[in-house]
């Protein structure tokens, strides 16, 4: 799969631009994060309705990513001055408030174009999300239409899954807890249910129940 110059399994397009980091302007390069996983996500514009919800969610939970040696970076075609103004606007007034993640300024639209998320007719970006590993290789591409945001939980799961395969290889299955709990009356034993790319383990008897989100746990023996 590819988008613009971004191709899965190939080096991610490099960038160097001004960003707002901890409330100040700073030059940020993708190469600064060599050795760490990076989640790079694009959003259409500052001061829009859906954007603050997902940006705030990624910022508020960035420590969960950093615990697994992953950094999160946001980007749009707005200037660093627009980013800072939005950050300085209180959340109750539609602003972002203080941010724990960098926001890249892509005024020339070169980064958005390289990553294949630029909506050329409007000059804004689709909601793209890219997972880049510690070697700078692009591992995952998601591009949503303008109205639909991204899931922090799913993004975290993807990073954990890629890191697991980095360590154990593609043949290793993963144990998932609090995933899809399915029980059958009279079964009384352990049942294994295959999902998209991992196995879910559930036990017990009674009425089938579907609860909670996927949580990555330990390798299956």
Short key terms for the protein model shown above:
Glutaredoxin, 30% strand, 4-stranded mixed beta sheet, 7-stranded mixed beta sheet, 21% helix, 5 helices, disordered C terminus, 221 residues, alpha+beta, 2 domains
Describe, in plain words, how this protein is organized in 3D.
- This protein folds into two domains: 2-149, Glutaredoxin (3-Layer(aba) Sandwich), CATH 3.40.30.10; 174-219, no CATH class.
- It is built from five helices and 15 strands.
- The chain has helices at 50-60, 62-66, 80-87, 110-114, 152-168, and strands at 2-3, 6-7, 16-21, 24-29, 37-42, 70-76, 103-105, 118-119, 124-125, 127-132, 138-144, 174-177, 191-194, 199-202, 215-219.
- The strands form four sheets. It has a seven-stranded mixed beta sheet. It has a four-stranded mixed beta sheet with strand order 13-14-12-15, with helices on one face.
- Strand 13 and strand 14 form a beta hairpin.
- The chain is globular and about 45 Å long.
- This is Peroxiredoxin-2.
- It is an enzyme of class 1 (oxidoreductase).
């Amino acid at each position: 799969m590819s988008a613009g110059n971004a191709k899965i399994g190939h080096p991610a397009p490099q960038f160097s631009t001004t960003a707002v980091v901890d409330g100040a302007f700073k030059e940020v390069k993708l190469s600064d994060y060599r050795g760490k996983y990076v989640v790079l996500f694009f959003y259409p514009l500052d001061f829009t309705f859906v954007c603050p919800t997902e940006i705030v969610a990624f910022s508020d939970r960035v420590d969960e990513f950093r615990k697994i040696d992953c950094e999160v970076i946001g980007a749009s075609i707005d200037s660093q001055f627009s980013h800072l103004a939005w950050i300085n606007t209180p959340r109750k007034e539609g602003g972002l408030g203080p941010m724990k993640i960098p926001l890249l300024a892509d005024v020339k639209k070169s980064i958005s174009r390289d990553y294949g998320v630029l909506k050329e007719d409007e000059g804004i970006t689709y909601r793209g999300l890219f997972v880049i590993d510690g070697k700078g290789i692009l591992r995952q591409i998601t591009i949503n239409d303008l109205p639909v945001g991204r899931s922090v939980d799913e993004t975290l799961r993807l990073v954990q899954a890629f890191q697991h395969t980095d360590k154990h290889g593609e043949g290793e299955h993963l144990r998932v807890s609090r995933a899809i709990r399915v029980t059958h009356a009279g079964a009384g034993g352990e049942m294994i249910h295959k999902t998209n790319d991992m196995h879910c383990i559930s036990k017990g008897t009674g009425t089938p129940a579907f609860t909670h989100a996927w949580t990555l746990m330990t390798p299956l023996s």
